[in-house]
Amino acid sequence: MATQDLAAKQAHAHAAPQGFLRKWVFSLDHKVIGLQYYFLALIAVFVGMFLSLLMRIHLIWPTAVLPLVGEIKPENYLSLLTMHGTVMVFFVLTTAPQGGFGNYFLPIQIGAPDMAFPVLNMLSFWTTFLGFLVLIAAFFVAGGAPLHGWTGYAPLSALPSAGPGQALGADLWIISIAIFCIGALMGALNFITTTLDMRAKGMSLMRMPLTCWAWFITAILGLLAFGVLLSAGILLLMDRNLGSSFFVPLVTVNGQILDHKSGSPLLWQHLFWFFGHPEVYIAILPAMGLCSQLISVFSRKPIFGYKAMVYAILSIGFLGFMVWGHHMFMSGMSPYSAFAFSVMTMAIGVPSAIKTFNWLGTLMHARIHFSSPMLFAIGFVSLFVSGGISGPFLAQPVLDIPLHDTYFVPGHFHLIMGVASIFGIFAATYYWFPKMFGRMMSESLARWHFWFSFIGTYAIFMPMHYLGLAGHPRRYSQLTEVAYLHGLVPLQKFITFAAFVTIAAQFIFLINLFWSMKFGEKATDNPWNATTLEWTTATPPPHDNFGGHTPVVHHGPYEYSVPNAPRDYVMQTDPESVPAH
Amino acid sequence: MTSFDSTVTIEPPQISSGDRGTPPAVLDGGDSDRPDSGRPDYATRLRRARIGLLVALTPVLMLFVGFTSAYIVRQGLPSFDPRTNTMVRDWIPVKLPILLLFNTCILLLSTFCIEFARRRAKTEAVPESPPPIPAASDRDEEKIPWLAVTLVLGLCFLFGQGLAWRQLAARGFYVSTTPSSSFVYLLTGAHAVHLAGGIFALFVAGLAALFHSSAIRRSIVVDVTAWYWHFMTALWVYILCLLEFAR
Fold first, then answer.
1. How many structural domains is chain B composed of?
2. What is the structure's pLDDT at A16?
3. Which chain A residues are within 8 Å of B24, Cβ to Cβ?
4. Is B40 among the domain residues?
5. pLDDT recorded at residue A6
6. Quick one: which of A481, A79, A419, A418 has its CA closest to A279?
7. Per the CB < 8 Å rule, is B77 touching A263?
8. Which of A486, A514, A542 is the last residue of a domain?
């Protein structure tokens, strides 16, 4: 044992830094880098929420003059829409669950002293941070932020003269996404190598917590998807700045024929959505893994069908690359192609349903502890089901065509991809806060936060489905002057008021987060009586994660309610002699 | 207080939980051969670096898959001619400069050189292992600085690619002239940027040798750079074939 301890001490490739810069800014420690990602996502989510609030205000009071912001014009509305989507998808939903919690907890959960390539890990964060700064800079250049939406459809995105914001603002948007891709790829490289090569003794793949499986598969998805987005971004930059015609057909702007020839806007859509659909799973898979973990911990039961959960994650990841065409049913694609994409999209419902039934199977007949992490985990399942149920509607071309450009689609994807993933982030925060900061968060504030967020989310996004079914187009900036939408304005007002309340409730979380760091009750090393490796080490974990010894794993990750065991749970590191399921 | 009551009643779950009854058969994790003697040994570090490289090459491959996909799609698209109101093809095949063949030879030569450098670095790092190729023990060959030769050949290749661009421009083919010329500049440029990354890694390996860094560390840098270089060579051959045979 002593030899092993010595080995672990020496195996940690870099010593604990002492100076502020090396310890907190340019740190090589995966835990600090995880926190850096987390706080970057926290800033980004408040920026994104603020932008969405401006959009909601403009929809209801289009001529209102807001302090500091002024009057929001229709083109400003499109800029807000673009930047809200981009900030949320890239810098929140991709950054926090994977870069934040994945960085912090993947090495600890598999028993490693750090990520495989710590310097690359640091670079991946600072590259992502640079990408965020470049994106935000688009607000402050001549013309402002771009109008083309987070999907950047050509030819609008390819023509600097197409509108305000499409000049330098759009260039910055593309460069920001390219920088983000590079950062994400460096991160994915670390996740995959670490998972494959740095697991502790006894930590076989089928003993990894489902969180680790989710981070691992998410990293593979990123590895395959971000390269293609990068290629599309380079082509787009060339179209915009070097006069090539990859995406731009012969086009007239303000009565003037441009030099571009027979480029294909649909080519952009294909390349973008080849990335874009796996991106949905990049956002949601880590939350799925986490909620599997939490539902098992707080039900005090082994997860129902561990292997089925692993194979479902693998299937979702694989099928995620086969369905990008369902975002393009409107493009006039061949009905045969549409049929193939439709069938594959329906097929993804099978592993998704397996996961859902396994969560419910775990909850069934369990003595559930409704602590705040569990509330958010159950909230995640609820949102995943509610948002997912409208997926098979949109997977059918015959239904997608009338619904595609309506509010039905924002209602669908905000529930399943946006807020469900955000609930996963909240659940992770409440669950791992004691381990990260050594203190407990206020449970009563957390419960207020949950109920406001849960009810508020449904109040915002369920009515959007009704708006869509009523034919309300999305992306319209002014509703009050469109006669046939008058009857739907009260519902839009309701959504805006719900958004006010829900966003205000997020400050409860913010206060709880920072207050608890300083004044929260001191946490024990394992406050949730959980079994995985992070709960075997000190709180917060030491620089080398396990205080100089290397964990050896003897049990699976979900050994709860074990008959004849001394406790109702068996830690992964408990000796083999301790009985297990 | 959110922690659990310590007096939890143990009740067996009332339903099945999938495969929980069968403990995992495999006991070892991926790092189960972690040595007891300090830092991961040479083999572990080399394996880790190679896995990292393999993973890193995947997005590079996907980048060029994306370009290839765009190439094939764009090649088949017609263009609308407003003068005749008809659809015409705007894809004008670009005859590649013969210089590219010469550059290809240089790159192929460099890939052999770096392979020699890799094998030598490995021998230096693990002296007890037998020389992998008989010729490597030859005195004269040992004097050849393979790494430096590779570096020079790599720079020659980049310089040659620059000359090829100038030849294309002299013939009137610029980035925006025709979609096919756009792709020639795009694919050769993207490849050159990636190869420049390999040259940077060679510089790092060279500096490591200069400042008497450990042979193990140098060997690992040279090893992954060599595999990366081989990949870049294969990629270049693929790009050349695409541009030449799918014009």
1. 1
2. 78
3. 204, 206-207, 556
4. no
5. 43
6. A418
7. yes
8. A514
